[in-house]
Amino acid sequence: MHKSVMDITTLSALAEPNRMNIVQLLRDGPLTVGEIADRLGLRQPQASKHLKVLSDSGIVEVRVDANRRIYKLRSEPFQAMDYWVQSFRHIMEDRFDNLDNYLRELQNKEKP
Amino acid sequence: MHKSVMDITTLSALAEPNRMNIVQLLRDGPLTVGEIADRLGLRQPQASKHLKVLSDSGIVEVRVDANRRIYKLRSEPFQAMDYWVQSFRHIMEDRFDNLDNYLRELQNKEKP
DNA sequence: TTTAAATATTCCTTGACACGAATATTCCCA
DNA sequence: TGGGAATATTCGTGTCAAGGAATATTTAAA
């Protein structure tokens, strides 16, 4: 039984502004390196480097088209994130948080 | 109209193994610094430092109980992550990816 | 009031990484 | 075949963050 282990690599790849922007951009469809660099105001080498990080972490995949590389998002990392976040549903619906705290406080008081 | 902007701070806070472990641990309920350090085999100062990062990023909140600090997860970051990941639903349900690719390929071929 | 427990903070060192600049590689086409 | 376009890679540099060790702070209890 695996208890929803989130891959650190995915998160650290996303935890960089330029790469996050690239991912948001690719949400609307695949793009070439040049298009990505243009739209985000990046220099081509930086774009390539960030795309390599995203590719190594499995967030992005590349399709070679002659001269150009077309990058697109892969589904798996997002499915994994979704699955992981869902393991915190009981945290997200904090309707019972006050009750939980109250019960916990009671338990603490009677354990000196 | 905000297009689901994910906070980088949240991601970089989670993109560290020890902090990820802390978060996974707190999923089962609030804990004190000492308990967290014990269960994860961390030294107390490191645990405190990581908890500070988690606290500064809003992932965790603290309740002061005399000598001890009880840390618990906050709901907002996870709700935000959930919302953000959901903006990639069309990526996650890759049922039509093959069709998409096919159509896109066709379009590329006829644009020399 | 002194002592011990729980936690936070500081200082230092080291390693990772992002950027810029330059260069290498691959491919198409005239 | 040579040249230009698109992309990747390398190298050097500066910054930032994590760990270790030591210390400061707060609180309860004797």
Uncertain runs of chain A are 102-112
Total of DSSP H or I helical runs spanning 4+ residues of chain A = 7
CATH class of chain A: Mainly Alpha
How are strands sequenced across the largest beta sheet of chain A? 1-3-2
Mean residue pLDDT of chain A = 86
From the alpha carbons, calculate the radius of gyration of chain A and give it in angstroms.
21 Å
Could you give the distance between the termini of chain A?
Answer: 37 Å
How would you characterize this protein structure?
2 copies of one chain form a homodimer. Chain A is 59% helix and 12% strand. Chain A has 112 residues and is of the alpha+beta class. Chain A has one domain: Winged helix-like DNA-binding domain superfamily/Winged helix DNA-binding domain (Arc Repressor Mutant, subunit A), CATH 1.10.10.10. In chain A, strands 1-3-2 form a 3-stranded antiparallel sheet. The model of chain A is unreliable at 102-112 (pLDDT under 50). Chains A and B meet through helix 1, helix 2, helix 5 and helix 7 of A and helix 1, helix 2, helix 5 and helix 7 of B. The structure holds a DNA duplex (30 and 30 nucleotides). Chains A, B: It comes from Paenibacillus elgii.
